[in-house]
Design a protein that fits this description.
Strand content: under 5%
Strand order of the largest sheet: 1-2
CATH topology of the largest domain: MetI-like fold
Family: Belongs to the binding-protein-dependent transport system permease family.
Distance between the termini: 36 Å
InterPro entries: ABC_transporter_permease, MetI-like, MetI-like_sf
Number of domains: 2
Number of helices: 13
Shape: globular
Helix content: over 70%
CATH class of the largest domain: Mainly Alpha
CATH architecture of the largest domain: Orthogonal Bundle
CATH superfamily of the largest domain: MetI-like
Protein name: Sugar ABC transporter permease
Largest sheet: 2 strands, antiparallel
Subcellular location: Cell membrane
Membrane topology: Multi-pass membrane protein
């Protein structure tokens, strides 16, 4: 018995030794920034002079800040659109690639993955050119179709800026979820589909009755990725509109950036970031609990 305990202890020490670099990195680049942001949120600081203790003053200000709440609402809309136009649409596409057009799946998957492999900054600049109201491809396409009434200054009008950004986000991240779901759909046993075909099931029935339940773990993981990514999205919004016009496409991260590096209110920016982190963690936990309670993944 003592020999087995010593063997287990030696393995535990070895495991801790190998994991310690990862723990150190997490402590330095995750735990410390979070703790520091929480501490800084209690102060009024411009980034240069000595911090002035505010207590809960920054949080009180945040609670009454309409721009922050509108930005948070847009983050939630981005998350909702991601669940539909990224996660669910990606699952539909993955099913088609694996089950309907397997001969062309590799070449089509490559095209879906191109936006994932390109820098988000480059994608944002490309779409700014496409949305240009004077020589952009979007308005040119409407003009070629005789739909001149649909031409817009897509990124410069309050009514269309946010929707235009959501379209770019869906285009950019869709390929990642397609790749993940293709791997999940391919793992479903072929015998299950063959049994369904014997019973006369079509693709619609097989998709909703077999594929979705069988790849539930992938649905849960991808949903969490989509929610977390949507609540902290920044680069595409920053490049496309910088939250404008008149905060029409503002999200929490761009508002944080403006407060910290535009207005030099570092304490208030830390409050926004700390609150964003907490809300993201809570949102991810709620989604995970909901998917687990509804049985997605085949286990409860």
């Amino acid at each position: 018995m003592s020999t087995s305990k010593g063997f287990a202890n030696s393995h535990n020490r070895a495991a801790f030794l190998f994991l310690s670099p990862a723990f150190l990195l997490l402590a330095a680049f995750v735990a410390y920034p979070v703790i520091y942001a929480g501490w800084l949120s209690l102060f009024r600081w411009d980034g240069a002079s000595a911090p002035v203790f505010e207590g809960a003053g920054n949080f009180v200000r945040l609670a009454g800040d309409p721009i922050f709440w509108r930005a948070l609402g847009r983050n939630l809309l981005v998350a909702l659109s991601a669940m539909v136009f990224q996660v669910f649409l990606a699952l539909c596409i993955a099913y088609c690639l694996v089950r309907i057009v397997p001969a062309f799946s590799r070449i089509l998957l490559f095209f879906y993955l191109v936006p994932v492999m390109v820098s988000e900054i480059c994608i944002g600049l490309l779409w700014r050119f496409m949305y240009n109201p004077y020589f952009g491809l979007v308005n040119a396409a409407f003009g070629a179709l005789g739909l001149d009434g649909l031409k817009r200054g897509w990124l410069g009008e309050s009514g269309t800026a946010f929707s235009a950004v959501v379209v770019v986000m869906s285009f950019t991240y869709l390929g990642l979820y397609v790749l993940l779901f293709v791997a999940a759909v391919r793992s479903v046993p072929e015998s299950v589909y063959e049994a369904a075909e014997i019973d006369g099931a079509g693709h619609f029935t097989k998709f909703f009755s077999i594929t979705i339940p069988m790849v539930g773990d992938a649905v849960r993981a991808n949903s969490l990725l989509a929610i977390i990514g949507s609540l902290k999205t920044f680069s595409l919004v920053f490049v496309l509109t910088n939250g404008g016009p008149n905060h029409a496409s503002e999200v929490v991260s761009t508002y944080l950036y403006k407060m910290g590096f535009g207005s030099f209110e570092m304490g208030y920016a830390a409050t926004i970031g700390f609150t964003q982190m907490m809300l993201t963690a809570i949102g991810a936990w709620l989604v995970f609990r909901y998917l687990k309670r509804t049985g997605v993944g085949g286990r409860t």
